[in-house]
Amino acid sequence: MLEVLILAFALSMDAFAVSIGLGIKNKQSIKTMALKAGIFFGIFQALMPFIGFLGGIGLREYIQGYDKIVAFLLLLAIGGKMLYEAFNENIEEEITQVTNKILLTLAIATSLDAMAAGYSLHLFSVNIYLSLFIIGFTTFIISYIGVYVGNHGGEKYEKKAEILGGVVLILIGFKILLF
Asked: Cα(157)–Cα(41) distance, rounded to whole angstroms?
């Protein structure tokens, strides 16, 4: 279960970084924006790993014996992508008004990585539904906090959150590969 908590934290760093950006740009009630960000990001961060988990089950017979390598490569790619994005411009800098449509788009964009990470959930001996709840709830809380951090001058934390998330995902990948 510790691996799921660490995975949940790492996956939520993308949503945290975007939530900080939303908090910086927020023109409406901070409480409303924080709640919306938490709900949108939390739901999609829980849904996408489930899709990845189901895909992993379907592919299991084809990649049996290589599943740890595949999980490692996926987590390495996701972590590398997060590190790359940390050092490049982010989409939320171009957003001028945060609508539900924008939030939906950002929630989907930040959770696509979680779909690939969901593949690795079948390698942990955990209850999938509890794992998905933990991932979604963790992302809800972290996104909620991220909006407040952004609203109170949190520009300096965006890059650090993505770097931390990327490094943690890569480390989880190495753990799966080696143990």
From this structure: 18
Q: What is the pLDDT of residues 28-66, one digit of tens each?
A: 789 999 999 999 999 999 999 999 899 888 877 777 788
Contact 135, 53 (CB under 8 A): no
> What is the rounded distance in angstroms from the CA atom of residue 160 to the CA atom of residue 165?
9
Q: Return all residues near 172 (Cβ < 8 A) that are at least 6 apart.
A: 3, 6, 7, 10, 75, 120
pLDDT in tens, 159-177: 888 899 889 989 998 988 8
pTM over 0.85: no
105, 107, 138, 121: which is closest to 52 by C-alpha?
121
142 secondary structure, DSSP code = H
Check residue 97 and give left, alpha or beta (phi > 0: left; psi -120 to 50: alpha): beta
* CB burial of residue 152 (10 Å; 0-12, 13-18, 19+): exposed
- Is the distance from CB of 163 to CB of 4 less than 8 angstroms? no
For tokens 């590969």, the residue is: 177
Cα 60 to Cα 79: distance, rounded to the nearest angstrom = 23
